[in-house]
Amino acid sequence: MKKAISVLSGGLDCTVATSVFSKDHEIHAITFNYGQKAFKRELQASKEICNKMNWNHEVIDLPWLAEISNSSLNTDEDIPELKEEDLDDLNKSQESAINVWVPARNTVFTSIALSYAESIGADAIIVGWNGEEGATFPDNSKEYMEKFNELIDVGSPEKIKIEAPLIDLNKEEIVTLGLEFGAPMELSYSCYKGEEKQCGVCESCMRRKRAFKNLGIKDKSEYEI
Q1: What three-state secondary structure class fits 78?
Q2: 45, HSE (Cβ side, Cα atoms, 13 Å)
Q3: What value does the mean pLDDT take over residues 41-52?
Q4: C-beta atoms surrounding 220 within 10 Å
Q5: Which of 197, 140, 210 has its CA nearest to residue 171?
Q6: What is the mean predicted confidence (pLDDT) over 154-162?
Q7: C-alpha dist (Å) from residue 15 to 51, 65, 76, 108, 181
Q8: Mean pLDDT computed over every residue of the chain
Q9: Any domain includes 193
Q10: N or C: which end of the chain has fewer CB within 10 A?
Q11: How many whole angstroms separate alpha carbon 173 and alpha carbon 36?
């Protein structure tokens, strides 16, 4: 069976993306610890997902990234809270994105994933980058993915490709795809804050909640609000 590296935070997007490839690939999931508030819950979710899906799992610590970051994700700064109507307000969503931006996070993660892929003979790096978040997070965009794949073509002796099956999808479409592929979305954890229950008011929670609500599907994970 072919092998794939999954960049797995335990969130909705990466869980669905990895599930799409899990029938045809032996999955080696990597969860990064970069000092984020939500690491313990992300780790818990990632372990539960990997156990259920029989995926290999490893944690990589990046203490230096925590030290240089000014993001509210891994500092004492408060994480922004949004209303549902703010999600489609480009100015407000961009302001939120800047607040939670971790320096070159996806570039770092994907580069490390490439190293792992070369070392185990994997042909794919699976990521949860998607169309909805790509509008405000440039390292989630289709252009970013295409440029990174060009870099791999030039810089790696192996035939490895970043696979982002959600790259053109919004959250509702992601949930629908997750149902189709049997993704354990109920085990995923999307919140930025890291409490036992998802807060329900950070941008990540709000986008997730809206998708399930608009589809008329119950989100089996728990929220404070």
Answers
A1: coil
A2: 31
A3: 98
A4: 11
A5: 210
A6: 98
A7: 13, 24, 28, 20, 11
A8: 97
A9: no
A10: N
A11: 27
Q: What are the strands of the beta sheet with 2-7, ordered from one edge?
A: 56-61, 25-33, 2-7, 124-126, 161-163
- The HSE-up count of residue 182 (CA atoms within 13 Å, CB side) is 5
Question: In terms of residue numbers, what domain contains 39?
Answer: 2-75+102-184
CA atoms of 29 and 47, how far apart (whole Å): 10
Q: What is the mean pLDDT of residues 51-58?
A: 98
Q: What is residue 188's predicted lDDT score, i.e. its pLDDT? A: 98
Cα-based angle 60, 62, 64 (whole degrees, multiple of 5): 165
Q: Is residue 191 part of a domain?
A: no
What are 115-134's pLDDT values in tens digits? 999 999 999 999 999 999 99
Provide mean pLDDT across the span 14-33: 98
Residue 32 falls inside a structural domain: yes
Report d(CA 27, CA 154) in Å as an integer: 25
Instruction: Check residue 225 and give its pLDDT.
Output: 87
Mean pLDDT along residues 65-81:
97
Query: How far apart are the C-alpha atoms of 28 and 42, rounded to whole Å?
Result: 16
pLDDT (0 to 100) of residue 144: 98
Tell me whether residue 134 is in a domain. yes
What average pLDDT does this structure show over 201-221? 97
How many structural domains does the chain have?
1
- What CATH number corresponds to the domain at position 171? 3.40.50.620
